[in-house]
Design goal:
17 strands, Rossmann fold, single chain, alpha/beta, 4 domains, extended, three-stranded mixed sheet, 17 helices, five-stranded mixed sheet
Length: 520
């Protein structure tokens, strides 16, 4: 009678992965089977001791965490569970690590037994019991491994045939009416948005303003939601839009049409790899109001005589006798996680620093050194370079495949040969990418509105365009500590005086404390 009334100590665990068609079709059915088994045994059910994981594999091939499994282990460690009921061993675990963890808990807690709803019992405190349990887990693991290999082989074969891998609908495409599984057709209204994004990114526009504009225009994503910087970046960096099916880093011709050309895609990847553009995809909006974010470093000397070199942090700060916060660049001693960052010696107004750098850059663009970057044949050269980059990628893929021919085959590349060829191709690709980056940035310079000179365009342009121009000629800006003094900059007879007044100047500032390291 006491046994019948005792509910604490017995748990039910259920799990369903994507391996369909097994004994139990879903988690609810597994739990119901367990409850029926409890009723047959005359055991009471403690609802707190029912654990489940839905659509999560228990094999070594899965990297998903099982919250229900972790809760079960916690209950065992708390001394609440002596016996676990499952419909089959594969529902509980399919790898030896989990099995050994359960066995180890029998030595630390009151837990002893795994019991199946068909009556099979594994007493893990006996040698025979845990040997039988481990054998059942190994059998389940072997089946899981075979299923994983079959699934990977099937996915690879589908990729080679150019079929879509399934899942949610990709933006720019839709499944054709009556079409076969894995086939796609272009959704023209969305493809037009993709082409617009590509064209504007190639013209030097930044990701964040484009995201904001898409949301303002109420253009929905494929799922009907809002756009985010990561959404746009994933879209325009996916080989899918150039008509390619990618699988584990290898590209195959797709069964669906391309939305942009391969040459446009390669050019876009070069543009998006630019540090200044990447800088503006995940930072807070206030930081993007600073021209030199990511470029400006602390030049204060340390005790060893070496410059600090820490990136200066932009932000609005209020000091004594100021009515409101003002934009500044600052060297922090510690970062946001408390780790050492810089020396803390540089704390300067952003306005005069940015004006000094802007003036130096505008002067540099008036020279003859940059004229070749915006030559009339730049677009034609860009297409040629993009095609060359595509051919180099194919050569690299072919060399990788040639490594795996059987020994003795004349087509086989030995390791030394492959590494030499790989280095040669990668060097060539790097040179092409550098030239493409320079030409793409030069195109941004060429996009000055008719009737404007460079200075007028600079004043009228948004921050993204200015940063693109800046990145063309500047490696970094080093800001040295300034000392209190009476030197006012710019002087009232300087051509910069009116621009300085518009920015809140003139200031007590020494432009010689700004050192620009040029690319040219």
């Amino acid at each position: 009678m006491v046994e019948t009334l005792k509910a604490v100590g017995r748990a039910i665990y259920a799990r369903l992965s994507q391996d369909r068609g097994r004994m139990s079709e879903n988690v609810d059915i597994q739990i119901a089977d367990g409850q029926d088994y409890f009723a047959d045994q005359g055991w009471l059910i403690d609802e707190r001791l029912i654990f489940s994981d839905n659509d999560i594999s228990a094999s070594i091939f899965s990297d998903k965490e099982r919250p229900g499994w972790l809760d079960l282990l916690a209950a065992i460690r708390a001394g609440l569970v002596q016996l676990v009921v499952v419909t089959e061993v594969a529902r509980l675990c399919r790898n030896l690590a989990d099995a050994m963890e359960l066995i180890a808990l029998t030595k630390e807690t009151t837990f002893t037994t795994v019991e199946l709803t068909n009556g099979v019992r594994y007493n893990l405190t006996t040698v025979q019991g845990y040997h039988d349990f481990l054998k059942a887990v190994l059998d389940a693991s072997g089946e899981s491994g075979k299923s994983s290999v079959r699934l990977k082989r099937r996915k690879r074969a589908r990729a080679k045939e150019g079929y879509y891998n399934g899942g949610s609908r990709p933006y720019g495409y839709r499944k054709p009416e009556g079409g076969a599984t894995g086939t796609l057709e272009v959704a023209e209204s969305e493809a037009a948005i993709i082409r617009e994004l590509v064209e504007r990114l190639l013209a030097g526009e930044m990701v964040m303003p484009l995201v904001a504009e898409l949301n303002d225009r109420k253009v929905p994503t494929a799922a009907g939601g809002r756009w985010w910087p990561t959404t746009v970046m994933k879209l325009v960096t996916s080989p899918r839009i150039k008509g390619v099916r990618s699988h584990l880093g290898t590209e195959y011709p797709a069964t669906w049409p391309a939305i942009i050309s391969p040459e446009e895609f390669e050019r876009l990847q070069v543009v998006l790899s630019d540090n200044m553009r990447q800088l503006n995809t995940g930072r807070r909006y206030t930081r993007r109001s600073y021209l030199l974010t990511g470029l400006i470093e602390c030049g204060a000397l340390g005790a060893d005589g070496k410059p600090c070199g820490a990136k200066l942090h932009p932000g609005a700060t209020k000091v004594q006798r100021e009515e409101a916060p003002r934009r500044r660049y600052r060297c922090f001693k510690f970062d946001s996680t408390g780790q050492p960052h810089g020396c803390g010696k540089v704390f300067r107004l952003a306005g005069p620093v940015e004006l000094a750098v802007s003036e130096a850059v505008l002067t540099a663009y008036e020279g003859e050194d940059l004229a070749a970057l915006i030559a009339p044949d730049a677009p034609e050269e860009l297409h040629e370079l993009a095609a060359t980059l595509g051919e180099d990628k194919k050569r690299l893929e072919q060399a990788s495949r040639d490594r795996y021919w059987r020994r003795g085959d004349p087509l086989r590349l030995e390791e030394g040969q492959f590494l030499a060829i790989q280095a040669e191709i990668k060097d060539a690709m790097s040179a092409v990418q550098r030239r493409m980056a320079r030409l793409e940035q030069g195109r941004a310079l060429a996009a000055i509105p008719p009737g404007m000179n460079l200075r007028q365009a600079w004043d009228a342009a948004d921050l993204g365009w200015r940063q693109t121009i800046l990145s063309l000629v500047v490696v970094k800006v080093i800001l040295y500590p300034g000392y209190p003094g009476r030197r006012v900059w710019p002087a009232d007879d300087s051509p910069l005086f009116e621009r300085a007044k518009a920015l809140g100047g003139p200031w007590c500032f020494d432009p010689s404390k700004v050192d620009i390291q040029w690319k040219l």
